[in-house]
Amino acid sequence: MIDWLNCPEVESSADRVSGAWVFVGSRVPFAALFENLEDGVSVKEFTELFPGVRLAQARAVLEFAAKHSLTAA
């Protein structure tokens, strides 16, 4: 399992979105990125659908997940 505490682009707070991990500075759960990618939405399209998320943030989350998924197995 990936330790998201070490990803600077996401945060979790009990008083926001029921403690779900969200993109920093937004209320958008980062899990929505992966769900949209599964549905065929591009990263750029995702950031257009969720203007509170910057393209650089979304890319950083994907890079973090890719890098840490190999070591978390």
Shape: globular
DSSP helical segment count: 3
**Mean pLDDT value:** 93
What is the level 1 CATH name? Mainly Alpha
Number of strands: 2
Strand order of the largest sheet: 1-2
If you compute it from the alpha carbons, what radius of gyration comes out, rounded to the nearest whole angstrom? 12 Å
Second CATH tier, the architecture: Orthogonal Bundle
Low-confidence stretches: none
Give the DSSP E fraction (strand runs of 2 or more residues): 5-15%
Give the full name of the CATH homologous superfamily: Winged helix-like DNA-binding domain superfamily/Winged helix DNA-binding domain
Any idea how many domains? 1
The ordered string of helix (H) and strand (E) elements is: EEHHH
Helix content: 40-55%
Profile the largest sheet.
2 strands, antiparallel
